[in-house]
Amino acid sequence: MSKVTKKVVILCGHHGKGTGATANGLDEFMENAWCSCALMVRLAELGYDVEVLSIQNYVEENDGTNYMARRQRALAKTDADMIIAIHHNAHENLQAHGAEIFYYGDKSKVLTEVIAPHLQYELGMKWRGVKRAGFAVLKEANRLGIPAAYVEGGFLSNEADAMRIGHVSWPDRLAKAIADGVEDYKNAPK
Question: What domain count does the chain have?
Fold first, then answer.
C-alpha cells in the first residue's frame, strides 16, 4: 500500500537571527522563518505532512562551524518525499536582484522546473532562472534520493527586492508560489 500523504520537509535557511544576510533593515533568517511558516500552513491545508527544520535549536551546543553536518544528519532521519529550502539572497553589487531556484540531480531538476513558473508569476520580480548548484543540502538530498528545491526569494541587498520581501504579504506570496508548484509536481504523471 503506497502513502497517500506526501511528506514535505522545509529547510528554513540559516540557524538564527543574524546568521544570514542583513540589508535594508531585513534579516535573512527572519524572512526565511516567516516564509517557511507560511509554506508549512499552505501545504498542511492541502493535506501534506509537513516538517520545518531549522538548526536554531543547535546554536547553544554548536559554534556554527559544522551546522551543515547536523542538518545533513537530520535530513537522513526524515522520511521526506521532497525538500524545499527557503533562502533570500544578498550581494555587494546592490543592482543584483531577482528570484531563482536551484537543484542538484535529475529528480530535483524536475521539481524545480515545475515550481519555477509559479515563482516567476507570483513574485513580481526579475526571474533569474533554474540553476544547478552543488550546495551541501542539495547534494545530501540527491544522495538520499529525495527531490529538493533551493529557493532564493530575491535580494535583501537590492532596495526594490527588499521592499517586496519586507512587505507583510511576502511570506504568503512566496508560499503560494511554492505550494502551487508542489501540487503540480505531485499531480504530474510520473
Answer: 1
Residue 190 has pLDDT above 50, yes or no: yes
Residue 122's contacts (CB-CB under 8 Å, 6 or more residues apart) are 173, 174, 176, 177, 180
- 8 Å CB contact between 74 and 141: no
Secondary structure letter of residue 132 according to DSSP? E
Do the beta carbons of residue 82 and residue 50 sit within 8 Å?
no
The whole-model pTM stands at 0.89
Whether residue 70 is contained in a domain is answered as: yes
* Alpha-carbon Rg for the chain in angstroms: 16
Mean pLDDT confidence for 155-183:
97
What CATH number corresponds to the domain at position 90?
A: 3.40.630.40
Strand-pair category, 82-89 with 148-155: parallel
Cell of 2: 503506497
| Domain, as residue range, for 155 | 7-187
In Å, how far are 7, 155, 166, 188 from 88, measured between CA atoms?
A: 24, 6, 11, 28
